[in-house]
Amino acid sequence: MMNWDDLRYLLAVARSGSMSGAARSLKVNHATVIRRVRSLEEQLGTSLFDRVGHTYVITPAGQVAFDAAEQMEEQSTGVERQVVGQATDLSGVIRVTAPEPMSETILVPLVREFTALYPDICIELSLSMRVYDLGMREADVAFRVTDNPPQDVVGTRLVRLAMAVYAPAGSAMMAADIEEVITFTAVDPSTDDWKANYAPQARVRLQTDSPSAALHGIKGGLGVARLPIAIGEADAGLERIPDIPVELGLHVWLLTHVDVRTNARIRVFRDFVMGFYAQRKALWEGEGLDQGLSSG
User: Fold this and answer.
1) What are the pLDDT digits (tens) for 229-284?
2) Which of 8, 25, 162, 253 registers the highest number of CB atoms within 10 A of its CB?
3) DSSP state string for 148-199
4) Can you list the domains of the chain with their CATH numbers?
5) What are the backbone dihedrals phi and psi of residue 63, each rounded to the nearest 5 degrees, phi first?
6) What is the largest distance, in Å, between two alpha-carbon atoms of the chain?
7) Which pLDDT tens digit goes with each residue over 95-130?
8) Cα(280)–Cα(85) distance, rounded to whole angstroms?
9) Rounded distance, CA 196 to CA 237, Å?
């Protein structure tokens, strides 16, 4: 009889195109993936993948198994979401994902205050620029910087990010002095516009999808970069370039899947986050800074 758990390995190899990629996604070793795929091929009596160079290409028979496995996966996660959505106790784990720069400036104090109120709830925090799939139960709650949240989620718009360009503290730099820049587009796709408008003379020295790398790059002398002011203003090692305007960029959303929105612990977490952000809205949106805000 088929071991249905082996189908998870089929899905992972087909999606990644490699045994090593599947091992990373499943958090197992490479040999385990090979063994489980071979076991499934033996059960089905056919080859599921052809190896082309370093890539594993799914065979026609493997595609049939893959399509069936995907349907099973969706049904399984759908049942799990609906069961989780019915939970009424204020205990257990909430899996939260957020962009990594939010950790020190907002999420650590948020989690500290929340768990003080609800000590039986544990927050499992994944910090990554990767977009986690709420429908596939990769996370229960997601903080996401976007103006186009997915359609199959329940979204709460928290704040709109104010963005500014930062240099190392003490540099007294103005726009005309900028020689090198760090470009970072993961938070706001318009991040490159400021260079064309205010520092066309500068060359790009570093490109990164990590705001933390951009922040440390500024302090390490690699150039100036555009960052959310809630991050830039909180770091004593940075100073805002005064003649480049602060601009409003994308919104921060709190997202949950529609099936789990009624879960008691997720509901109290969502309500707490909304209040927490409301108290700090002026910081994130740049109210009170010494330059006017414009739309980014």
Assistant:
1) 888 888 899 999 999 999 888 888 888 877 766 778 888 888 888 888 888 888 88
2) 162
3) S--TTEEEEEEEEEEEEEEEETT----GGG--EEEEE-SS-GGGGHHHHHH-
4) 6-85 (1.10.10.10), 88-296 (3.40.190.290)
5) -65, -40
6) 72
7) 888 887 677 667 888 999 999 988 998 999 888 777
8) 29
9) 25
